[in-house]
Amino acid sequence: MTFMELPGKRSTEVKHRISTAGSILSYEFKTASNDIAFGIYRLSESGEKISILDEKRYCSHIIPEDGEVLFEEPGLYVVKFDNRGSAFQKTRKLSYWMEVIEPKIERSSTGGAFFNNPRDSGYYQENQYMTPTGPK
User: Fold this and answer.
1) What is the DSSP letter of 34?
2) Same domain, residue pair 70 and 96
3) At 107, is the pLDDT very low, low, confident or very high (cuts 50, 70, 90)?
4) Are residues 87 and 44 in the same domain?
5) What is the pLDDT of residues 8-52, one digit of tens each?
6) Are residues 76 and 113 in the same domain?
7) Which H or E element spans position 40?
8) How far is the C-alpha of 36 from the C-alpha of 53, rounded, in Å?
9) Where is this chain compositionally biased, Polar residues type (predicted)?
10) What is the pLDDT of residue 110?
């Protein structure tokens, strides 16, 4: 876990350079008191912010937040914690953990590439989610 204090009217960003499509970001965060805004976006080559997980406020001081996000294409992704919405400019004590898990690429006997999802027994093939028994 990473621990930090985020002053009122401030935000912080954690950047991840993703080189393999199908990578998964697993995350968990909580605050010691009060809510905080959280979102994930990808930076295009032109600098445009493309929302992956819309930024919204979470009451992570009551229930810690966790989740996973699938990155469908390589690029620079930014995880943002935002305390600018703090009406009383209170500092947030923030704890977070993040891990990027890259898929294992397997070659089939027919020459196709399968991306093994590390979270289950499924595979990604040509923009289609596959299970060992066929498409979902």
Assistant:
1) S
2) yes
3) low
4) yes
5) 889 999 999 999 999 999 999 999 988 999 999 999 999 999 999
6) no
7) strand 36-43
8) 15
9) 124-136
10) 64
